[in-house]
Amino acid sequence: MYSIILVDDERSLRESIEHIVDWEGNGFHLIGTAQNGLDALELMENDHVPDVVITDIKMPVMDGIELAKKLRDEYPTIKIVFLSGYDEFQYAVEGIRLNVVSYLLKPISKDEIENCLNDLKNTLDEEIQAVNDMSRISGEYQKNLELMKISFLNSLLTEERFEGINNELEEVLKTHELEFFNRGKILFTIRFVENQASNNQKKNTEFLRFSLLQVIQDIVKKYSESEVFLFSSYVVCILTGNLKELDEMKDILTKDIIASTLKLMNEKVVIGVSEYYLDIFKTSKAYRETLTALDYTKPEEEEYVVFIGDVENTSSKTEFLEEVDERSLLLAIKTNDIEFVKNTLDNFFDDKYYNEHNRFTVLRTIISTIYMNCIRALRETVGEVDDKFNYRYQQIFDAVQYDERTVIKKELISFCEDTMQVILQNRAQTKNSLILDSMEYLKENFSDPDLTLQSISSYLNVSSSYFSTIFKKETGKSFIDTLTEMKMKKAKELVLMTNDKMFEIAFECGYDDQHYFSYSFKKYFGVSPTKMRKDNIAELTQL
User: Fold this and answer.
1) Which residues pair with 6 in a beta bridge?
2) Among 83, 79, 12, which residue's Cα sits nearest to residue 52?
3) N- or C-end of the chain: fewer Cβ atoms within 10 A?
4) Could you give the residue ranges of the DSSP H alpha helices within 179-299?
């Protein structure tokens, strides 16, 4: 059963509609009636928020248009139906903007209202069913799961980082049955030999690529847990295993692909092969490596396969730094997450790296990496970098030749902590400045009827969501509550200390509508402005 409120200033019409309509027979419970928009809002204040409001357009105190505006801002899920006369049809354009779902033209019959109610009930039923029809949603989900998987794989090739997915990655891999991606990986990219283009034009190119995909899928599954899919004009293979397995496998696998496509399809292909990598987010880098490798292939000289490591030095960084998520490191420094920084440094100072690399090279690479991320964090949050950070970096860098790793590590943690402290102090100063500026602006402009959260955020050059959060956190009150408090304090002062008319006080406090001002005043103080003034005069008289 859905709830409904009827709003109309014509008492006879309101009571007629109330009694002739079979509300419950049409799936609705009439929870109340009101003679104007303000009465309707007061009715809703008492926990009677309906699913539907049927309202006249032309009414005193607060008309249907103004009521619809309030409902749109405070109760956006309510369905609104306008009752209108023929000469009020021009309001239809405004109604569309206010989410009005239907119009009933006066004079109106019982059948017309009940037909409207039937349509509304169907709409509400469909909305609830759409949310709760899990079998339908599950069916759609299963139908699109493969498309979602391909979309995820394509994203791996094109994006270096996935916003918000870090903590959900395991769930994504599980959903698409790709848990094996947590192992080491190499990536193959395969395409037809370009000088076969003229021959391929005689055939269906899309069909050829799909056939190539099928052939390669059948081959690769014999060797490794893998994923083979189409991307652009290429077939891409992501193969998994440990470094030794993949190193032994890649030569024979590439030969198998070349020989099989020639035998089964009478087509020649070229293959680019990436370096071995662990981090799934390095897939885009591996893909770029394979495209570079393809540029080195020379099918006319029977060079069909190129391993990028054979032709280019892709290990310009120390190997272990390829596994470091520098973006997360930068974020940790910005957000004062010292534990993440310490864990990162623990990984940096693992013994295995010192057994495989020159000690000085490793230490200096670590120091430079930490320094660059600290400096970047300072520049992006504070703007300027004190020379003391550059001087301190040089001291730590020079200390490599005689200090132990534990000392260097301790100094780097201290360096990061000092960086974080500067960022925290700057952020606190920025927040204080933001709140002070906003309060000053509010004091000067609270009487502006157009003052909103959006307008003050624009003035302060910050997003409304950020300003709203910071304002409440720092002041203990929401922006709207603070603005209302300022308006009401000024209103009370004018009510008690002047003889201004109520519409003048309403205007001076930022209210275009005197009736809405009185409604807000009573809601805030528990008494209307007129009664407050009368009570005050009575008290003064008794004195």
Assistant:
1) 33, 54
2) 79
3) C
4) 197-200, 205-220, 243-265, 283-296
